[in-house]
Amino acid sequence: MDKGIIAGELSGDILGAGLIQALRARYPNALIEGIGGPKMLAAGFKSHYPLETLSVMGLVEVLRHYPRLKKCRDSLRDHFLQHPPDVFIGIDAPDFNLGLEYALKSAGITTIHYVSPSVWAWRQYRLRKIARACDLMLTLFPFEAAYYQRHQIPVQFVGHPLADDIPLQVDKLAARIHLGLPHQGILVALLPGSRRNEIRQLGSRFLQTARWLLARRSDLRFIMPLAHPHLKTLLTQQIAEIAPDLPLTLLDGQSREAMAAADVVLMASGTATLEAMLLKRPMVVAYRMAELTYWLAKWLVHIPYFSLPNLLAQEALVPEFLQHQVIPEKLGAACLHWLENPDQVALLQKRFTDLHHQLRRSASKEAADAVSKLKSVRNPVSSRNWVSKKL
């Protein structure tokens, strides 16, 4: 039972690796190919392009890279039409994957989309495209599944693999020992993102915030994990220009350990905020984007929150700062609030634990079960006839 899988970024690589491992328990000799990262490759995946090929975010940024992305998608479409998998699974990257899923489904290939696009927040018209493109939507969060059910689109809530991987209680001291950090003292983790654009938008502002905090709390120490080695030059340049004397430890990767070791986390919005929540760490969430992208999103997006902990809870559990609010005074004051109010941190951690239980469902196994149960009702061989007409 061969599978096609395309993951769009690091978070998709994690999901894809878990899914591949669960599928291999059922189909040990299956060919599983498409686009994936190091974790998927380690699970026995064949990648036709590097994972970074699809790591583009923002409306303006995607438009700039559109010709390259279209060429890649057309190539993968032709490959899967000539060598039809039993099931194709697009992991996240909806602007790339949904169009590919539509072409494959039209040719008789069963398609699944894993990780819901934010249709509940903006571009609700995509529901029609989703219904045409995929036979089943797999969601990570329960509120997403409820949304699809209301619109009568086949859906299954599988939970989140991170909630399975991360224990309900995390030992801060053990994390510090693992990283070779001092056992005592207050530690602030800085996570400005995993993309070059995010580092450009948030790296310098996070470093300025660290300086602001240190001027008020000389006992603070800082830690910053590098999501990719190729980001080191950009970050070290920012450190040299903005905070050369900052008591800062740079790490190659190990973002989870860095968050686990910290007393508070200042971070970019994204999947990492879910990880911080599961680690039960108080956080301050920020995001900036290209100015044109921001103004377009401001008119198109209508949700009260943008960080995952707040979206899951449907209330403001953690402070969020967007675009022009991302300044040291606001970010720093929010970090100090957590450091100086341990009772509120304890209440926050209790809420985080409740949400952790809600998402802890053996997600990779649930997703693999859904893939196995979804049998194609169309003849995949017809895709060969379809592609012969198109080429």
Give an overview in words.
The structure is a single chain. By secondary structure, the protein is an alpha/beta fold. It has two domains: 3-159 and 361-384, Glycogen Phosphorylase B (Rossmann fold); 165-359, Rossmann fold, CATH 3.40.50. 51% of the residues lie in helices and 16% in strands. It has 19 helices and 13 strands. It has helices at 10-24, 38-42, 59-64, 66-82, 94-106, 126-133, 142-150, 161-165, 172-179, 196-216, 232-242, 255-261, 271-278, 291-300, 308-313, 328-340, 342-359, 363-373, 382-390; strands at 3-7, 32-35, 46-49, 87-91, 110-114, 136-139, 155-157, 186-191, 220-226, 248-252, 264-268, 283-287, 320-322. The strands form two sheets. A seven-stranded parallel sheet has the order 3-2-1-4-5-6-7, sandwiched between helices. Strands 10-9-8-11-12-13 form a six-stranded parallel sheet, with helices on both faces. Strand 5, helix 6 and strand 6 form a beta-alpha-beta unit. The longest helix is centred in the middle third of the chain and has 21 residues, at 196-216. It is globular, with a radius of gyration of 22 Å. The model is unreliable at 376-391 (pLDDT under 50).
